[in-house]
Amino acid sequence: MYPPAITYLLDLADGYVEQNRAVDKKKSVLRGRTQVNLFFEASTRTSTSFELAGKRLGADVINMAVARSSVSKGETLIDTAMTLNAMHPDVLVVRHQDSGAVQLLSQKVGCAVINAGDGAHEHPTQALLDALTIRRRKGRLDGQVVAICGDILHSRVARSNIHLLNTMGAQVRVIGPPTLMPRAIDELGVEVHHDMRKGLRGVDIVMMLRLQMERMQGAYVPSLREYFQLYGLDQEKLTLAKPDALIMHPGPMNRGVEIDSLVADDINRSVIREQVEMGVAVRMACLEALTRHLPNIGAAS
Amino acid sequence: MKRPANPGAEKGKLVAYLNARLLDPASGLDTMGALLTTGDQIADLGPKLFAGGVPSGIEVVDCGGHCLAPGLIDMHAFVGEPGAEHKESFASASAAAAAGGITTLICLPNTEPAIDEPAIVEYVERRARENSLVRVQPMASITKGLAGAEMSEMGLLIEAGAVAFSDGDRAVASARVMRRALSYSTLFGKLVIQHAEDPSLSKDGAMNEGDVATRLGLAGIPVAAEALVVERDVRLVAMTGARYHVALVSAGDTLDVVRGAKAKGLQVSCGTAPHYFALNENAVNDYRTFAKVSPPLRSEDDRQAVIAAIKDGTIDVIVSAHMPQDVESKRLPFGQAAFGAAGLETMLAVSLILHHDHGLSLNDILYKMTAAPAKLLGLASRGALRTGAKADLMLFDPDKPWRVNVDKLRGKSKNTPYEGLPLTGKVLMTVVDGLKVFDATH
Q: Do residues B422 and B401 touch, judged by C-beta distance below 8 A?
């Protein structure tokens, strides 16, 4: 996506934030439309957020939690897509555990497809909601120094944020142990830090990533306690960031692993709950933009 | 045996070592002169020191014209604490080390339990502090329980005092695990030390694969088992930028790989033990289990290659590879006997073969047992005769002949492959942190 498209979506979402805070949250721009949430991977907040977004815009929303199939995934995926396509949905919201699966699916269906996260590839609406949160708090995106910390290797949130923030003129740093850093990540236009204390120096935004439990016990990092000591965001490390730096986390948090509870609940600096609120607004904006068939927005975002 | 307190070091006691041949491998110094220590530090040294006599109030040690060098740093020794105290304890190992001129002992983590937890590092340090005559610093394991599967807590282990990482006498066999460990180690810059022996190739092997093994009917361990692990690891080092060290190199093929890696500018180093340049596979004849070591003693060509690599600098350090084994572990059919040779007391004397028979200078040999390991392990204040450095000293006579008498060895286990052999060069005195811990001058 290009800067004008991103700005357009963020402006649209900004309006929905106000609507979502009003008593009457319902609009009818998606009236008569059918939205199918197709989640191949378990998710609570993203699917709820999309469901709420669709319903507030007046769409008929169906949630389909598709269990992981043991048969060849490609075949199942395409079969599922063809079946759904025959029911004439207007929007498919898809989450899948394999990178590229959403793109594959989008080639097989006739409706708009929103990527709600595919493998370690992209999670575009998360990046948009993060951008909206930053823009509302800081006034602008360009020039902001953003540190993304933790498991960069497996994170689609990191990849989408790097892409969006770089596009919008922010300066992105990634911080994590070398074992959780994808190769050649610096080619993506980010500054790489392995020492969190150095990486946090003078940043405007600290974006923590979730460390999957199964990746902690010795495979990528030796242990939970060592990870927290080196890469857990606590008040001592946070003092290195700018005094008004924001703390973000895509959730769900592992308190005491990547983030200290005191920091996560810091009323003045933690915007973690605000991110969730922005999530609904951003998803409403995406749904509206896609169903309006605006020429400057691609079908598969 | 408890390490005596060192009141002298605390009070800043002055000791003058006179009439010494000062050898400092770090600077290349080789001159007659004197050295002064204050407490646990070297205060001054040089040819002109005390030329006008020694002021009163300074204790005088007459070195009798013998060589005064930095104490040796042995970066590869097994001490059986915890878990194998019947084979070696800090008390017995350090007595042997002191008699061998070793002032710093880096002990291996393949104990029982393994040194893979900060608490065990602290335990080992405390036991050593209370019982050892020489300084002991532990290595910690690369993987938890030496299982080769999950990384140890390198950060916390370093904080507790671990100086390097190694899985002891086991290779990290999985390339994936090794890659992650090397990658993770770059956070701290500590050395990752590999026991280079592919377990799937060396399985059931008892000695070098070759004509001697064939004649003896023993299962062999091919040179390739060592070389291919190093070849693989060098590629991983190129990917990760880690600092990598091969604990013991026994064969020419492996040395070619290390040489190539160094030429590419990779942070690759390696060590060897005296038996790999003093002995070859023929030492195994008559099924002598004391010559059963890991990696195994190789062919004569390999022995020559090791000597050449020491000369050209491919081999960075010489270590004792001290692996004490009790009689019950060695008095067995060759195939069943345990690997390992005791080596602390003979390390210097056997290494001096390189001086007497192969033309290396004393400083060139000592460098690989003092300044080189100090540099690899980041022990900045050790391994050199320098004003301000720690007063870790070794006084030795490089030309004194002696015969290895097993009954007189100080280590608890007597499994030396040099039993009854004549050696040239003997340690006369050892000083750790300014304190005399071994004295054979009287």
A: yes
Mean pLDDT by runs of 10 across the 301 residues of chain A is 93 95 91 92 91 96 73 70 89 93 92 94 97 97 97 95 97 97 95 97 97 74 93 96 96 92 94 96 95 55 43
User: Residue B319 pairs with which residues in a beta bridge?
Assistant: none
DSSP code per residue over B238-306 = HHH---EEES----HHHHHHHHHHHHTT--EEEEE-HHHHH--GGGGGGG-GGG--SSPP--HHHHHHH
Helix residue ranges per DSSP H, chain A:
3-21, 45-56, 73-85, 101-106, 124-138, 156-167, 196-199, 224-231, 235-238, 261-264, 272-291
Backbone φ and ψ of A281, nearest 5°: -65, -45
Task: Name the residue in chain A with its Cα closest to that of B156.
Answer: A226
Contact A69, A76 (CB under 8 A): yes
Tokens 């878990």 belong to residue: B83
Touching check for A225 and chain B: CB below 8 Å? yes
Q: Assess contact for B357 and B350: CB atoms under 8 A.
A: no
Q: Do A222 and B149 touch (CB under 8 A)?
A: no
User: Hey, of A175, A183, A198, A223, which one would you mutate to test binding to chain B, going by the most B CBs within 10 A of its CB?
Assistant: A223
What is the identity of the amino acid at A17?
V
| Nearest CB neighbour to B186, from listed A178, A217, A221 | A178
Decide if B404 contacts B414 (C-beta within 8 A).
Answer: no
Q: What is the spatial distance between Cα A61 and Cα A37, in angstroms, rounded to a whole number? A: 7
Q: What is the ipTM of this complex?
A: 0.88
- Residue pair B355/B365 in contact by the 8 Å Cβ criterion: yes
CA distance B179 to A220: 10
Residues of A in contact with B149 (CB under 8 A): 218
Phi-psi region of A211 (alpha: psi -120 to 50; beta: other; left: phi over 0): beta
Chain B environment of A198 (Cβ under 8 Å): none
Amino acid at A59: A
The answer to pTM > 0.90 is: yes
Give residue-wise pLDDT tens across range B173-202: 999 999 999 999 999 999 999 999 999 999
